[in-house]
Hints:
Layout: E1 5-6, H1 16-25, H2 44-61, E2 67-72, H3 75-87, E3 93-98, H4 101-110, E4 115-121, E5 145-147, E6 150-151, E7 156-157, E8 168-171, E9 188-192, E10 203-208, H5 225-230, H6 240-256, H7 258-278, E11 283-284, E12 296-301, H8 307-316, E13 319-320, E14 331-334, H9 341-358
Parallel strand pairs: 1-13, 3-4, 3-5, 5-8, 8-9
Antiparallel strand pairs: 2-10, 6-7, 9-10, 11-12, 12-14
Amino acid sequence: MTRCYNFxxxxxxxxxxxxxxxxxxxxxxxxxxLSLMEMSHRSPEVVGVAQRAEATLxxxxxxxxxxxxxxxxxxxxTQFAAIPLNLVGEGQTADYVNTGQWSKKAIAEAxxxxxxxxxxxxxxxxxxxxxxxxxxxxxxxxxxxxxTPNETIGGVEYHWVPEAEAPLVVDMSSTILSRPIDVxxxxxxxxxxxxxIGPAGLTLVIVRRDLLGRAQSSCPTMLDWKxxxxxxxxxxxxxxxxxxxxxxxxxxxxxxxxxxxxxxINRRKAEKLYAAIDGSDFYANPVELPSxxxxxxxxxxxxxxxxxTFLKESEAAGLLNLSGHRSxxxxxxxxxxxxxxxxxxxxxxxxxxxxxxxx
Length: 359
Ligand SMILES: *Cc1c(COP(=O)(O)O)cnc(C)c1O
């Protein structure tokens, strides 16, 4: 069996040791004679798996008891609606910063459930920058300030945390667990699992407990964070197998040395790849230097008529899913936690060879 190098933006590569454990335990989980998938979510086994996953995640991210950790469904996109439904009170405004496609979707959805102020936008640079905080027009008394720490499509990442009176609400779908963060700076952290946490079908919400219990009366029960917190994310059947796999990913991160160790690897990977792009006239990355993403690296070819050839040949070489998002074209290498340094080296070697043959 040959495993290819997978640069997919999501669902993304999973750590091989996690897949191996899942394979070994698939038919008979811990000698119980059945798969974890076939067990009741109320069983001590599944409750134990969920509790252990939460405990390991709390340890990795340094999440204090002031925060609830929720394992939900519906993806980050469902949280685009859940956020205003849980947090925007009567007559209140929510501030949003628009740095690209995912910010835009969050803004459009929030407008359905509350008043929205776009405090800043980088549309004028075609989303290749982050507007400096001094230019942001924040609303006094805003319900929260929402931003997208890593724009997965544009490859634009904040390497700083904004200052705000309002609680910070952040979509960390494509950056969570890539490095340590100070959770206490945030009101709500949310993420779809399928980039750095586990398989699709699981959504993580980390919410400061004082923000629970404020939901609009029309908020659907399944979107009310307090209901989820009060029922340990088991108001209804949670995605048990996805949660189990996420727990294995958390264990893998811990064995690796935690998020500082992961960050060192991720920085090496990103630095190499950007250096290869910057060191050639054949490849280019459009993002301003201080805001380049550690996880998603878009790049273009000087001659875009070669794009199809690049993608065809890279795939044949076992380097998968390098095409850019359908909305922007070009190429994109997503180099999440589970994408090894060896995979990035192979990509760089392929890029050099391709340039020599076509440049
Ligand atoms: C992938 C992604 C989403 C969408 O996540 P779903 O779980 O598919 O809803 C939202 N925001 C960001 C930043 C993403 O990378």
